[in-house]
Amino acid sequence: MEKLKPFVVVVDDDESVSRAIKRLLRSIGIAADTFASGDGFLDMMASVPSYRPDCVILDVQMPGLSGLEVQRRLSGSGLPVIFITAHDDVSVCEQAFAGGAVAYLRKPFNDELFVRTVRAALEGGESS
């Protein structure tokens, strides 16, 4: 049986960031969906039980639910979470890791580091 492509969700209110990440992931054989809000993503997860990404990439600051709030609501789901942010706030970083995040990357990030981080999350490892 053919192994399914890994499937990642990107939740970021900046459409250009989401588009760039989706393109980068596709270029390395990873399928990706994007959402402009945490609410939209959580609504999809709640309404379609079979909708189950292998990893979630969350922006920290978004209108509506913050990335940290989305992470809290996913608690116990076993989904690896990678945070991306333009803000360098140590307390937010600490909260993210305390909530189980596998990585916390500051924008703009290096594509190679990002790819390594996503692959490590998909394989169950940790990276930062």
Describe it for me?
- Helix content is 41%, strand content 19%.
- The chain has 128 residues and is of the alpha/beta class.
- The chain has one domain: 3-Layer(aba) Sandwich (Rossmann fold).
- A 5-stranded parallel beta sheet has the order 2-1-3-4-5, with helices on both faces.
- α3 links the parallel β3 and β4.
- It is globular and about 35 Å long.
- The N and C termini lie far apart (33 Å).
- The mean pLDDT is 92.
Topology:
Blueprint: E1 7-11, H1 15-27, E2 31-35, H2 38-47, E3 55-59, H3 67-74, E4 81-85, H4 90-98, E5 103-106, H5 111-122
Parallel strand pairs: 1-2, 1-3, 3-4, 4-5
CATH hierarchy, class: Alpha Beta
How are helices and strands ordered from N to C? EHEHEHEHEH
Query: What fraction of residues sit in β-strands?
Result: 15-25%
- Uncertain parts: none
Relevant terms:
single chain, about 130 residues, five-stranded parallel sheet, 5 helices, 5 strands, globular
In short:
This protein is α/β, with parallel strands linked by helices and 128 residues long. 41% of the residues lie in helices and 19% in strands.
